């Protein structure tokens, strides 16, 4: 009898892999539902964003499956999730090239297509192509230079062109991933340690409140100014405005009801901003600015609501230390079903949750140190890599991976990707893009999805370089991507040496380098970090301190709103910004009677309201007067750097901002300045 060897069939692994893909798809759909309105989002935008999130998530699943599949000896080995080599190769090709096209072509075009402001699809597409032309030209220039080098090194053939495209995409993604991951590896455990102390967390929230409030006011004023322009356009019934009457009506319908707030700054005259001849380009620009302003307002309304609710909850936890009973105030986003008793709720929020956060902070600190150590040591002594030792303990004779080691591999990879995404929020260089609950702007959604897709593959292969060379060399991922990255000596050296630069963002975050830059130059890349404000001004006095934030939050919690306008009565400040059909959508969160809230204090930051003197109209100022006001405002509103505050250098009276008299002196007299007592002129 002849024995016939039948190759093993991975039936259980196939079922697990299919179930995992379905689970990833469901999670991504819930994530999209949280930040987008699924019914209102067009399919041409929803499908690419879904793929840009689901495919990178599948990479986190595919890497440990690839490691287990390639390390099996003739189909034997410990129990694990494995797939045939051909199936793994097809999965890598589909995932990689779809991610590549989404990152470099589809999502950038879609982002500008949504943000174009035009009504016709053809005009939108032309605008998107023009906006991306410069970006694509820079990419093609770099590709041509790289192609010349690759041809000189390895000759001209198709694999050289394909390898060049993959290597350049990997190099740019690795640069971005290392920089962001360095911030995230410090930020994740540090935030857990910070939030373990309720009192200090409340101080940081209060220190953050003035900045969020100011940005909300700016967003409100910007939107009111644009709505005024739309109102001026509606009043024009002749000329070129008649040709775009339907477009103008659509813009006015989206403005909604009038805002109950009085703007804190003088709004410019809307009529002066409307040109005499209305063109399609002007209306597209106005539409684009109006869409951005509406989403900007929605962003800061949501951020302000969450900040006020968090501050009220933290204050309630602190106030409950005496009675040992915790009751939170009613909030629109909080479930009315109460499972825990007040005493158990107090123990949970005062003792258990802070202790768990401190424990996780210590755990993730060790994980961050292991990743940084592995990045530094992998090019010198890879056998001492901490990450590699948890997956392949015996690096000389690596054994096939079991299911437990696959879980550890996924955990390491997921933490590295999470650190890079957390670093996006720490580094404030991404413009005004943000994720807003159920109201994210389409261009922002495309950008964030593109960033997730751009970072995952470089992080996955960078993680693979932690493992022994012989062990990772047998994987399909290394043969598919690593072989082309290491096609030249520059690619090999870049892949192993550049990750050492992860120390730069780590040191910048760990030793408050951005805060020092802000103190010296007056600006910084991470100037929104509330920790720096608390440390530099622990007393909280002055403009932008935590005391001012506490006053703003208390006014909101007690229903007085953020601005003391008597005409508003007891109505919540942001009630007009929510869904008009939901009367409980405002941010007025009342403190429970048992907690004893403080009485509202007057904000220390002066509120600049529109001033009318005896009903007289203000004279129209000339160019030199307007220029003088702008120069003076620049010097008066700019914070002094720390090195200048400590010096004995005295500034001239016209730069000191000392308004002890009602007459303007200094440089403004040269341009015909006039007295403006107690007012900040915004020309």
From TrEMBL:
Biased amino acid composition, Polar residues: 586-605
Region called Disordered, residue ranges: 574-618
Membrane topology: Multi-pass membrane protein
Keyword Ion transport: no
Coiled coil: 216-243
GTP-binding in keyword set: no
Localization (cell): Membrane
Record-linked InterPro entries: GPCR-associated_LMBR1, LMBR1-like_membr_prot
Highest taxon listed in the record's lineage: Eukaryota
Membrane spanning residue stretches: 12-32, 44-65, 94-114, 135-152, 164-186, 355-374, 403-424, 445-464, 496-515
Keywords from the named record: Coiled coil, Membrane, Transmembrane, Transmembrane helix
Amino acid composition bias (Basic and acidic residues), ranges on this chain: 576-585
Family: Belongs to the LIMR family.
Protein name listed in UniProt: Uncharacterized protein
Organism of derivation: Penicillium angulare
């Amino acid at each position: 009898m002849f024995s016939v060897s039948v190759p093993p069939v991975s039936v259980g692994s196939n079922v697990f892999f299919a179930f995992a893909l379905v689970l990833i798809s469901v999670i991504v759909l819930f994530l999209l539902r949280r930040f987008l309105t699924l019914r209102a989002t067009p399919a041409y935008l929803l499908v690419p964003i879904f793929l840009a999130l689901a495919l990178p998530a599948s990479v986190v699943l595919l890497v440990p499956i690839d490691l287990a599949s390639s390390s099996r000896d003739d189909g034997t080995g410990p129990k694990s999730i494995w797939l045939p080599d051909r199936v793994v190769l097809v999965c890598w090709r589909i995932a990689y090239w779809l991610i590549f096209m989404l990152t470099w072509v589809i999502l950038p075009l879609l982002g500008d297509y949504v943000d174009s402001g035009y009504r016709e699809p053809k005009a939108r597409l032309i605008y998107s192509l023009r906006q991306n032309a410069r970006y694509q030209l820079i990419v093609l220039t770099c590709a041509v230079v790289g192609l010349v080098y690759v041809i000189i090194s390895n000759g001209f053939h198709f694999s050289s062109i394909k390898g060049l495209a993959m290597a350049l995409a990997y190099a740019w993604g690795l640069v971005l991933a290392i920089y962001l991951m360095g911030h995230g590896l410090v930020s994740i455990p540090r935030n857990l340690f910070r939030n373990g102390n309720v009192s200090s967390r409340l101080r940081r929230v209060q220190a953050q409140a003035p900045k969020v409030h100011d940005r909300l006011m700016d967003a409100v004023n910007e939107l009111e100014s644009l709505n005024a322009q739309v109102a001026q356009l509606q009043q024009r019934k002749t000329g070129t405005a008649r040709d775009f009457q339907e477009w103008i009506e659509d813009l006015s319908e989206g403005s909604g009801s009038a805002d109950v707030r009085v703007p804190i700054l003088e709004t410019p005259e809307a009529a002066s901003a409307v040109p005499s001849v209305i063109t399609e380009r002007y209306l597209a620009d106005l539409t684009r600015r109006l869409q951005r302003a509406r989403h900007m307002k929605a962003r800061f309304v949501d951020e302000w609501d969450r900040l006020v609710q968090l501050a009220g909850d933290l204050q309630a936890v602190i106030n409950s230390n005496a009675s040992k009973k915790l009751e939170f105030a009613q909030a629109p986003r909080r479930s009315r079903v109460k499972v825990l008793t007040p005493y158990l709720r107090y123990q949970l929020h005062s003792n258990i949750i802070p202790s768990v956060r401190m424990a996780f902070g210590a755990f993730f600190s060790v994980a961050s140190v292991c990743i940084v150590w592995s990045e530094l040591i992998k090019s010198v002594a890879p056998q001492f890599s901490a990450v590699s030792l948890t997956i392949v303990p015996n690096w000389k004779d690596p054994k096939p991976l079991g299911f437990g080691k696959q879980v550890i591999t996924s955990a390491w990879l997921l933490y590295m990707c999470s650190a890079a995404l957390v670093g996006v929020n720490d580094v404030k260089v991404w413009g005004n893009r943000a994720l807003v609950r159920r109201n994210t702007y389409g261009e922002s959604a495309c950008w964030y999805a593109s960033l997730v897709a751009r970072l995952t593959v470089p992080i996955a292969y960078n993680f693979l370089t932690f493992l022994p060379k012989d062990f990772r060399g047998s994987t399909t991922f290394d043969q598919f991507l690593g072989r082309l990255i290491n096609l030249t000596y520059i690619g090999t050296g870049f892949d192993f040496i550049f990750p050492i630069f992860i120390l730069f963002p780590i040191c910048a975050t760990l030793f408050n380098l951005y805060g020092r830059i802000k103190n010296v130059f007056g600006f910084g890349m991470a100037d929104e970090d509330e920790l720096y404000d608390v440390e530099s001004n622990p007393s909280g006095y002055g403009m932008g301190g935590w005391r001012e934030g506490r006053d703003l939050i208390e006014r909101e919690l007690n229903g007085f709103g953020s601005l003391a306008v008597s005409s508003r009565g007891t109505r919540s400040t942001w009630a007009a910004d929510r869904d008009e059909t939901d009367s409980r959508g405002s941010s007025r969160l009342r403190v429970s009677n048992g907690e004893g809230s403080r009485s509202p204090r007057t904000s220390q930051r002066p509120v600049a309201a529109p001033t009318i003197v005896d009903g007289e109209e203000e004279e129209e100022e000339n160019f030199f007067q307007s220029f003088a006001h702008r120069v003076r405002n620049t010097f008066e509103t700019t914070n002094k750097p720390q090195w200048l505050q400590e010096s004995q250098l005295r500034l001239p009276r016209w730069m000191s901002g000392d308004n002890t008299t009602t007459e303007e002196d200094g440089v403004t007299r040269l341009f015909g300045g006039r007295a403006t007592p107690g007012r900040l002129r915004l020309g």
